[in-house]
Design brief:
The protein is built from nine helices and eight strands. By secondary structure, the chain is α/β, with parallel strands linked by helices.
Length: about 280
């Protein structure tokens, strides 16, 4: 009997092409395990933000999830936009013949984070746009069974941080330029809110700042990468104890990827953002 494969992650991508920084969900070098990407043609940022897919796009979303499960044999699936929490229910409804965990938003960690804190402790949730996150709250509660509207949760929108507007514009973010603004926003908030004991980064383009925020705050910081790592680790062999020799090691090499490469030829016509290489 051969070795079982090392666990892998699948990422459902928006129809949105941008140069990701290391730490971003769309940068393969972010991960210590294999990651595979699948763009959903027509699933734009604006559609994800609205929380409603057209029937055609939803079909392509389901086809993309099935491709990751059946062709790439992934163990965990996430999305490259926090607004995909709107589609958590759709993802969970897809029939699967093997255990595959759906982690469509870093916010899924929120309840477990609260459970580790004292009743009066507060949590900062940092997001690309505070208003948009607030609008998402009812759908999140319906999909995930708990609310992000809570007096112990402080939502910080990052839309006014110098340089971070590149996220909304689909441009490359200058992490070095943005980082001081992230640190200042956190420090200013902590001065006013001494009961904050944890920080959760909602936006999938915020993980590159997690270490700087940990340093300046001294607090634990969670993000979508920590969410993926947590679930992937449940499939991963523990090398220090227990049964060994049953799972193959990761080869430390990510497959190369260019935007749109895994889209069927018949579906490329529906891409809003055309790939540079067909």
């Amino acid at each position: 009997m051969g070795l079982k494969s090392a666990p892998t992650l699948g990422v459902i991508r928006l129809d949105y092409d941008y140069p990701p920084a290391c730490g971003d969900i769309d940068c393969p070098d972010t991960y210590g395990y294999d990651v595979y990407y699948k763009v959903v043609p027509g699933l734009t940022f604006e559609m994800a933000q609205s929380g409603k897919m057209t029937a055609d796009v939803q079909k392509r979303f389901i086809d993309s999830v099935n491709w990751l499960i059946n062709t790439k044999k992934v163990n965990v699936i996430t999305g490259d936009c926090g607004f995909m929490v709107y589609f958590q229910e759709v993802a969970l409804s897809i029939p699967k013949h093997q255990p595959v965990c759906m982690v469509m938003s870093s916010l899924l960690q929120l309840k477990s984070i609260q459970a580790t804190l004292s009743p009066n402790d507060e949590i900062i949730v940092m997001t690309a746009n505070g208003v948009a996150l607030g609008n998402m709250a009812p759908a999140f509660e319906k999909a995930c069974g708990f609310s992000i509207v809570d007096p112990r949760i402080k939502v910080l929108g990052c839309e006014n941080i110098p340089g971070f507007e590149a996220v909304a514009l689909g441009q490359k973010v200058d992490v070095a330029k943005v980082q001081p603004g992230m640190v200042k926003l956190v420090n200013d908030t902590l001065k006013k809110s001494p009961n904050v004991k944890a920080i959760l980064l909602e936006c999938t383009e915020l993980p590159p700042y997690a270490n700087a925020i940990r340093e300046c705050s001294g607090l634990p910081v969670w993000d979508v990468i920590s969410a993926c790592n947590y679930v992937v680790s449940a499939f991963l062999n523990e090398p220090r104890y227990g049964k060994q020799g049953w799972q193959a090691d990761w080869d430390q090499v990510q497959d190369s990827y260019v935007f749109g490469q895994n889209v069927q030829a018949s579906n490329k016509v529906y891409l809003v953002n055309k790939p540079a290489k067909q």
